[in-house]
């Protein structure tokens, strides 16, 4: 539920850094393309404190998908966003998942969000209760 953005780095730098560490060629160009895809092409040079919560979440999503992960874990990805921002973030999350071909493991209390998933497992006190239809 925390975006874990580095406060002294711009949106572009936050997304490019893991790519640069991984020695990805054209890391900044790839980061810029991802930020543009998530609707932040005009906010590349902004620091996290200059971005709204929804914008920070989109930077975090761009960074998460920058490495084209096979599996992405998301714990209550909309827990601290208003309903409208949360819906946009979820649409974006599923679109990026589809584009990257990633498996998304999502933890949520939101039943509407769970219904969008291919498979739903219900836990109670850490125990698997049932697999929802």
Secondary structure: elements and pairs:
Blueprint: H1 11-21, H2 27-37, H3 53-66, E1 71-75, H4 83-100, E2 103-107, H5 111-115, E3 120-124, E4 127-132
Parallel strand pairs: 1-2
Antiparallel strand pairs: 3-4
Plain-language structure description:
With 133 residues, the protein is α+β, with helices and mostly antiparallel strands. The chain has helices spanning 11-21, 27-37, 53-66, 83-100, 111-115, and strands at residues 71-75, 103-107, 120-124, 127-132. It starts with 10 loop residues before the first helix and ends with a strand. The chain is globular. The chain has a two-stranded parallel sheet with strand order 1-2. The protein has a two-stranded antiparallel ribbon with strand order 3-4. It has five helices and four strands.
Q: What is shown here, in short?
A:
This protein is α+β, with helices and mostly antiparallel strands and 133 residues long. It is built from five helices and four strands; from the N terminus they run αααβαβαββ.
């Amino acid at each position: 539920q925390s975006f874990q953005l580095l406060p002294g780095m711009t949106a572009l730098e936050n997304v490019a850094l893991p790519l640069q560490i991984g020695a990805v060629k054209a890391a900044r160009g790839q980061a810029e393309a991802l930020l543009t895809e998530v609707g932040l092409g005009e906010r590349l040079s902004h620091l996290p404190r200059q971005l709204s919560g929804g914008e920070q979440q989109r930077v975090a999503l761009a960074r998460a998908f920058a490495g084209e992960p096979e599996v992405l874990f998301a714990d209550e990805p909309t827990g601290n966003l208003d309903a409208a921002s949360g819906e946009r973030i979820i649409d974006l999350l599923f679109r990026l998942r589809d584009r990257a071909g990633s498996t998304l493991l999502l933890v949520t209390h939101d039943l509407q969000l769970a219904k969008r998933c291919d498979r739903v497992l219900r836990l109670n006190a850490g125990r698997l209760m049932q697999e929802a239809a």
